[in-house]
User: Fold this.
Amino acid sequence: MIIDGKKEAEILRDEIKKEIISIKNKTNKVPGLSVILIGDLVPSQIYVRNKEKNSKEVGMNSNIIKYSKDVTEEEVLKKIKELNNDKNVSGILVQLPLPDQIGKEKIINSIDPSKDVDGFHPINVGNLASGYKAIVPCTPLGCLILIKKVEKNLSGKHAVIIGRSNLNGKPMAQLLLKENCTVTIVHSKTKNLKEECSKADILIAAAGSAKLVKKDWVKNGSIIIDVGINQEGDKIVGDVSFEEVKDKAKAITPVPGGVGPMTIACLLKNTLECFKARLT
Ligand code: GUN
Assistant:
């Protein structure tokens, strides 16, 4: 089975759109997402454009604040403070990566945790790790929704995550622990990478290495989620060698059209949740 992330994202966006219409009818208010984009990296520009398009389609207000790559940290912090205090702003996202003069930690820590739609603020990271209510990073949240479309009960399943980033690997592990999975995180320094992966009932590849996962890395009947977005010539490929792995898996996400669309749909979901939390 090939998991259709585009279709699942459309279903989620439809639900969000309906809820926004219903709240707007009662309150005359809609969620607002503010995105800060610094510099001129092409992938970041494409992501931000997609975020804007998607948020408008579901009836949210979207506001992109663009800075040149030599903007000062002070100026960005001042803008974040302004957005934190703006009651029309439900969610704030600062597109990563940032230029060298801007401290990522300082920027993330300055965002009001209740508007942190990326779920990167230490308060949200800590709440997620403690099993409390938290804003969950969009990509792992999207991955979990896709996994649960295939298998509702994940209790006791062995999940292996390739990659230990704050964006994907670590929050993914927390989410799967909450689902009662046995979780292993593997990374570039792991010995016997192949052997570890071949034990996975659920394999999540978020390594950022094109076609890393081969046929003999995966267990028969496993669920494979490919978070990778790698340029190979004029094509985008994932972290999994899709063609050679797909017949061995019970279910697998393609790249493109798998996790990617779900990430943006989950950003809208997080923005809606932040908005609802502020309605009184
Ligand atoms: N750059 C790549 N992925 C992401 C993401 O999920 N959030 C932000 N803020 N920047 C990113």
